Amino acid sequence: MPSSRVFGVGDHGVVDLMPNGGDELVTIHNVEEYVERTLEFVVVKGIRKQIKAFRNGFNQVFPIDKLGSFSPNEVKTMLCGDQCPVFTKEDIIRFTEPKLGYSRDSPAFLKFVNVLVNFTASERKAFLQFTTGCSSLPPDGLANLFPRLTIVREIDAGDGSYPSVNTCVHYLKLPDYSSEDFKNQVTHSKHRNLQSVSYAFDIHETGGV
Question: Are strands 171-174 and 164-166 parallel, antiparallel or unpaired?
Answer without folding.
Answer: antiparallel
